[in-house]
Write a structure and sequence with these properties.
The protein is mainly α and 79 residues long. 75% of the residues lie in helices and 0% in strands. It contains one helix and no strands. The longest helix is centred in the middle third of the chain and has 59 residues. Keywords: Membrane, Transmembrane, Transmembrane helix.
Length: 79
């Protein structure tokens, strides 16, 4: 009887430990993905600001059409 109980306890502890490790791994993966997306958004925001500045300068200088093209890499995500 004690062997059966020992096997059951070890199996339960291992299954709980495996579930905990899986939860930790998925949490770390989600955090890394969030940081990657935040970095992409920051880069896009900087490029949008640059393009906006170019468009405003184009308008104030009363340059003829066409307006300046968007910067290279704007919303160019290689996911």
């Amino acid at each position: 009887m004690s062997e059966t109980l020992l096997v059951a306890v070890v199996g339960g502890v291992c299954s709980i430990g495996g579930a905990a490790l899986g939860l930790i791994a998925s949490t770390i993966k989600n955090q890394l993905e969030a940081h990657r997306l935040a970095a992409q958004m920051q880069e896009d925001n900087q490029l949008l600001w640059l393009w906006n500045r170019q468009l405003v300068d184009h308008i104030y200088k009363q340059d003829p059409p066409p307006p300046p093209n968007p910067p290279e890499g704007l919303f160019d995500h290689n996911d």
